[in-house]
Specification:
312 residues, six-stranded mixed sheet, three-stranded parallel sheet, 10 helices, elongated
């Protein structure tokens, strides 16, 4: 999902000005992508192992959660294929499957609730959610507020209309109309990296610090419709949008600034080691890889779940 006013997915990004050209290094965020339910991008033959409780992991669960039998997960369901609503309104996606598998390992059920992206981390602090699984980039800034258990890696990608009719270069976005989801790393990048470099180069800045939308689906539609020239989002979201829009978009430049995603928990939570151990167990037994393959995002697989493993 994408980030928001909490500056949730902020990843430090660098930019260089060489020979008057802006060299943009992207970052990682999260949001839905594309339009439609997303079923066409899912491998229907991929099956996820039936996950059963591991008594040694269940023993790590705090007593109050164990007695309640569930963990409540906040997720902004507008960031396919990571988290989004299918054509029946059911919240589905990589993060949803992982949340269910983590809960099962711990002898619990996961209740995934749709939430505004910027409301998730405050909701964890208020004990409304035990977990935040919404394509959060794990950053040192976020780790000051919540614990993060790493489980994936993604970078920033860009897309334009098929054929790149405006002849946009990924190395020079100055003055271009860029669509982003509100609060994402990509939205922060325009303000913190791209526009300052454009000013230094004596070039026009990105108008309005980017065309910002609450939903990633609207970001995608803004480029498909021609309202904006470029969209920026997490790499798996861009890849999914390319599939979902039936060839109306193409990728612009390489994926940049890869960084880990993290599951957000209350700072110092007794649940943190249990979740880290559950994620690692899913990695070890192959369930994790099956889930990623199901959603076509296995390129972002990692093999070690860490607590507060931000790289920047």
């Amino acid at each position: 999902m994408s980030a928001r006013t909490f500056r949730p997915r902020l990843v430090a990004a660098g930019a260089a000005l060489a020979a008057g050209t802006l060299l943009m290094t992207a970052c990682s965020s999260s949001s839905d992508s594309g339009s439609g339910s997303g079923s066409s991008a899912v491998n229907p033959s991929a099956s996820v192992n039936s996950v059963t409780a591991d008594p040694s992991l269940a023993a790590l669960v705090p007593a109050d959660l164990k007695s309640g039998g569930k963990i409540v997960v906040g997720s902004d369901a507008s960031y396919a294929p990571n988290e989004f609503q299918d054509d029946k309104g059911t919240i589905v996606g990589m993060d949803v499957d992982l949340a269910n598998a983590i809960a099962a390992k711990l002898g619990l059920k996961a209740e995934v609730q749709n939430a505004g992206f910027t409301a998730i981390i405050p909701g964890i602090g208020a004990n409304k959610y035990q977990l935040g699984m919404s394509s959060f980039t794990d950053t040192k800034e976020r780790e000051q507020t919540v614990d993060m258990v790493t489980y994936f890696t993604a970078g920033t990608g860009m897309a334009v209309k098929k054929g790149n009719p405006d002849k946009i270069s990924p190395d020079d976005l100055c003055g271009k109309k860029i669509a982003v989801q509100t609060g994402t790393t990509q939205a922060d990048q325009i303000v913190d990296v791209i526009n300052p470099a454009c000013v230094a180069a004596g070039k026009p800045t990105v108008p309005n610090d980017g065309d910002k939308f609450d939903l990633q689906t609207d970001v995608t539609n803004a480029v498909v419709s021609g309202r904006d020239q470029v969209m920026m989002a997490d790499s798996p979201v861009i890849d999914y949008a390319l599939k979902q829009t039936g060839g109306q978009l193409e990728k612009l430049g390489p994926t940049t600034d890869s960084a880990p995603y993290g599951i957000a928990l209350a700072k110092g939570s007794a649940l943190t080691p249990a979740v880290q151990a559950a994620v690692q167990s899913l990695m070890n037994d192959g369930t994790y890889k099956q889930i990623l393959q199901k959603w076509g995002v296995d390129a972002g697989a990692i093999d070690k779940a860490q607590v507060n493993g931000a790289t920047s």
